[in-house]
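Figure 2 data, in text form.
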Amino acid sequence: MEEGAGLFPEVELLEGVPQVDDERDELEDPEFEVESPHQEAESHAGSGGCAEKQQKADAERRKKVTVQDRIRASELRKDLSRLDKLHRDKDLFIQKTRGELRACRQRMDLITRQQEGVAAELATEKEANHTAAVGRLQAMSRCLCTELENERDLQAKIRAVLRESESTMWHIGIQEGKLEVLQKSAREEQEAAGRCLQMQAAKQLSQEKAAWGKAERNRLLRVRKSTHLQKEHGLRHQKLVEDARRNHRVAVKFLKASLGRIQEQEREQELENRKQLRRRMDAVLALKNSITANRETLRKFRAWGQARAELAEKKVKAEKQEILAQGGDAFRHLSHQRRLQELDAQKRAFEEEQKLRKQEIVSRILQEEAEESRRKRLPPPASATDRPTLRDKTWGYLADLSEGKTPAAASVSPPGQESSNGPFVGLTPAVSMESTQGDTGNANWDDQTLAEPEISGLWNKDYKSHQVPKEDVDRKPVHGTKMDKDILGRAMERLRSGVIHKQVVSGREFKGCPFNCKPKLVHFKDFDVGKVYRKKMTLINATYTINYCKLEVSPGLAGGSPSGATNRDCSRRSNRGRAVCPCACSFDPPGPMSAGMSCEVLVTFKPMIEKDLEGNISFLAQTGRFSVPLKCSTKQCSLSLDKELIDFGSYVVGETTSRVITLTNTGGLGTEFRIQAASQSCETDFTQLVTRMSSVFMSDDRGAYEKGVSSVSEHQIDGNDSSLGDVRSQKEPDEVHTAESDEMTTILAIFPNEEQSEILLGEITEGEIGPFSSIKVPIVFSPVSPGAVQRRFRITFKNPQCPTLHFRVIGVAIDVPVWVPKPNVDLKICMYDRLYQDTILVHTRSKAALRLKFEVCKELRGHIELLPEMGYIQAQSSYSVQLKFLPRHSLPKDADKYFDTESRVLDAPMTIRVADQVKPVEFTVHAVVTTSDLELSPLEVDFGYCTIYEAIRTSVSICNLSLLPQEFGFVGLPKFVDIQPNDGFGTILPLETVDLDLIFQPTKAKEYSFELVCKSEINRCFKMTCRAVGVHPPLELSHYQVKFAATSLYDTSVATLYVINSHLSMNSLTHSVPRIGSEDTCPVGPTSFEFLLPPDSPITISPSVGTVLPGKRCLVQVAFRPALPLEQIRQQAFQAQTKDGEVKLARREPATPRRDPRRLSLSLLRLHSRERHYRSSTSHAPRQQKLELKISSEEYQVAQAALTRSFQGKFDKFVVPCVIASGDIEDRKGTEPLSFSPHNTLYLELWCPTVAPSIVVTSDKGKTISNFGDVAVGHRGIKKVSIQNISSEDLSVDFSVLNPNGPFVLLNPISKLPAGETQVLVLSFSPHESTLAQETLDIITKRGTLSLTLLGTGVASMITCSIAGDVLNMGYVIARESVSSSFKLQNKSTLPIKFSMRLDSLSSTKRDHQQLPQFLVSRDQRAEVVGTQNLNGQSVFSVVPVEGVLDPGAAQDFTVTFSPDHESLYFSDRLQVLLFEKRVSQQILLKGAAREHMMFIEGGDPLDVPVESLTMIPASDPEHREGDPQPDPPSPEAEELKPILVTLDYVQLDTDTPAPPATRELQVGCIRTTQLSPKKTVEFSLDSITFLQHKGFTIEPSKGSVERGQTKTISISWVPPTDFDPDHPLMVSALLQLRGDVKETYKVFFVAQVLTVP
């Protein structure tokens, strides 16, 4: 290694000498390389001297130096500095070489002494005849001799290098002597420039002094002026302060009054809110109870349904078991019953259809009659204009509907018509105790209901309905007249009258009603129009024997018919209106009925009008007719009071009592009520009520109230003809309506009566009472003045049919003689365990002295005291009592019903009992009781581990739990603790939390445990426990805080500090030693450190990891390079993209000068929708591209430049921890980290201000990365960068030095950049190799540095060839024929490549080199690739195409043609691919062989040279063969035998294990040719096979044939025979004959030998 290091530095140093000449000629001799720069420098020095004289002459005329002279002088200075550096480097190299020479001589001396010692030992061992030792010493002696010889060679080389280096030093000294004049002139120039600068500095200094004097005078003038202004300002300020204080006193006075009014309003508002909240809670509870009741009802309905289903199932099972027990077929019976039920259903449907048809016919008849009567009443027809149009009819119909009238009844029914045919309203079926309701849309009236029959009979499933014969069906001709109908009715009545017979049994004639009805009156109560009701009645045979019963007519109903109406009248009415009668009876005659038997009749009622109806149901029995009364009543209100007089009796003034009066509704219709004093009007409008109530309601409750009032108003307006029950039945079920009525009652109860009196109504003054319900109305009696009080009230109802109810309230008030003028004693805010006092004044109006006893409730006797407890008050005087209030902490527990824990308000009732007075005098003590506690959080503070070089700050909070402000302060603080702000003292407001900073800085390493005491103004102490561990680290920093100067973006500021290891001794008595708390002392030795930088911080610390020895220090450099956050740059890029997209979208919208306003608004809507769609799409697009945006992208660079220009500056502070570990980093094993202690941690605080840069890039959208792209190697790319000075001052510009051997060059450096101006920098990129080049060009100014990143990629011409191994073998060809082969070249680079093909045989450089003939050179030393060529002068190889251009990624096919003109086995040439006519990319070796005949053989060892001789001796003379033919065939001896040598080496390493045989191969081939030949194949044969086998040879095959263009392999293997002598190689021969177009004979020599070493 030393030898290598000493041989090459001279060349490197000499090559590094700069050249002044711009042509840079290449010199072969390195020595001339050294001399050339000096000669050039000398010439420059001469020119420089002339230039100096010329400059002096020109200075007198122009006093200016040209730019060229300045550049030449700077180049000379650079050459001198480089020559000095070369002299120093060469001197250092000579010293190093001489040291190596001395070391080499020492090693030689040492080896010589070792040889002498070995020779002495060798002689001793020889005398002792120790053979082994002698051999070992001889080997050692040989090794020492070899080492000595190597050292001598090395010494000779070192001496040669040293002589050469000394020679170089002499040349350098000579050059320095030549350039001494230049150095002297350069120094003189520098001194002159220095003197000029000093003169300019002196002149500038005098100017500055004058300017400073002027500025100082101006400053003194300004000071005097400012002093005068300050005096005036002070006087004016004092006057303003006095005015402000006076105004403040006035404002405080008015503020107190305003605050008092505001507090009073707040208290009233709070009371009102509480009342309102209480009312809301009552409403919620009522709603909850209603929901519970509804759930219970639903549960009952479900239970009834389950019970009914179980009952039906049990019934079916029982019937089935009964049938099975009787031996019948249960399945058949059930199917038969199901079929009967289906038939019944069909029958009922048919009957319903017939009834509907009848009703339709009757309605038509009635309509005809009405039209006829109307025509009779109307006057003669008027003109066509008087007739109502279709629109008038429609409006009339809608008006009738709005008024609640039935359009059919209004337009069709004649006057006096009892029944109407109004529309049916289908409602949800409802269940009552007496009836069941159904839907008119369902024709089947036998649907299941929840009502159970009173008497079982018709409801049984096995009941078989009676089939009415067709003769009994009421036949009505469809087109019959009214006269025919009357005649038919009278005929049927006469027929039926003859059926009645008298019943006589045992001589007794039955008289009376033949059947008893149960119930006696069929009453449908509280019906709704449109619903269906059913009732069953039972007829019992009351005669003496069998009787028959038959329904005579349908029930006839009359509105309000008199009770004395006869059956005939009802029957007549029913006959007249049978088709429209709202009642129907379903009765199947049971046939003969014995006495006491009964049957059931089902009565169905479907009301059409809201009216009370009465009538009879007529039956025909054998003994006569009888009827059952029928009554239908609508819903009505039946209201009553439980009492009409309320007597309160006698009560003392000030007391309050209440009574309750109950309003009961026993009817099925609800109504609204209002309770008023008898003097108030009952006709108050609802709109006024709404206005008054909306002003009282809160904003959040006003909507609910208006909803309720609007519903009530709708009910009120809803018409005079229809009742409130109609509207309610059409809207909601009864349960929901009941809940609404309760809510309405609660809402209406909110508003108090406007008239204040002693007898008042309670919360309920108006509301709604539902059907079958009652409401309790409270009446309150609060006497104010003594005497009798009486008041009358009236209850009015919205339903006009309900009469007004009246009741009267009376009471007597008794006066009290003793009173307290201040019944509410307010103690304001009080603290626990503090005494508060006040005076209570008592007055009396009595004319006699009274005894007073002052009582405090037992719950407050431990907290409040009244002194004296008993006293006498004189007649018509006053008495004072002392109140002492000392609240204890047990107050909330003792007086929980008087003390509100949430608001901390105490309302303590006090009692004054007066002798002979029933009612005591009461007053209330109000106080807000608060605590005096200060809460410290946390109570325990653990600072953890803290070093003595730092301080730990933690935040603690102190909370004032009191309602009063308190002063606090931390007292008795230790020296190592500090509390800020205000050193731990201050005032804390009520319920305020103040954060304090607790700072702990240990003074030495130990464990700290202490308490901090906080005292309040009432001397209460609150303690906080603190603990910490002081740490003395083994290392320390020279600076713990680094403040960087203002650094511009992407600039770098560097600060220096030291890591010091001052731990030299473990004696803790003399000084403090490093330790953690009370643990063991840290060991003395090397200590390692590591700085842990925060992530994504602009800080770099070098070295961040290191080791410091005891008593030493390590230099650490901290670099601050601010940069914009990556996320902010990406966001700016996304915003720019979004803005570009919006601009593009706006450009797409075409301008429309005139457009319809409607179309314009529609287009605007479409535009807004498009914009929203685009914004949504663009908002999603950045999220998808956010991860794809890279730092090198154009969008990123543009956004970075925009943010840089708009940067305003910022300030950051970083804290960098430095962990410490004992030991050396280099001693760790592999990657095993050191055990850094988390407690021995130092902290470095860095202040990092960032400012905007002074120079920015304005070209290429502000990007600081100049990418030249791909440039071909050897070419040059140019790029221009514009920079601008955005600061307010001119800047001097310097540039960092680029790599002189690198590809980047700054072509036009500048020296100054004025403020606001822009300069263009020209950069060039000339790559020398295929690689990615990157350099940084720093533009340095006094206000910062701008870094330009230069990027470029040198692209080499990368071409791949399809030929493997770069060898193209054309094979064997017949002489004077040709063969072609192709290969492919592909361009793998990104640039187009110009190529050209060149053969070495055609190259002109081949003839310039003089070399020995190749046949005179050994095979191993032959380097010539051009072999045998054609004799005709043409190239044996040719390639097409010769030149062209390859596009990037493209491929080109090339064709190589082999055309030999004579026979030879060594045709060869080399094909070179040149790129850009300069560089050789590929070299392809071309090979080929030519034969005169079609057969050839390959293989064996070479026996001749691969080049031809100077003369050609043909193998056979063609003239002799043609001119003198021989008749006899030639003998084998006469034929020419061509030798072939085959050598076989049998390797046998182990005699016990047989080795594999030695093998070789020969190739016999037949050349494909275009010549005509009688032979198509080549035959070969080898003789002496048996002899060869005896010698151990195995040849396969020994004979055979080869087709044209094919080859065949002859495998030869040899195993030594048993009689083989290894010391004598075996050599045998055999003849190989080839027969094709001619016959050739080869003599093959086989040489075999055995090798024991491979």
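Caption note: The mean pLDDT is 76.
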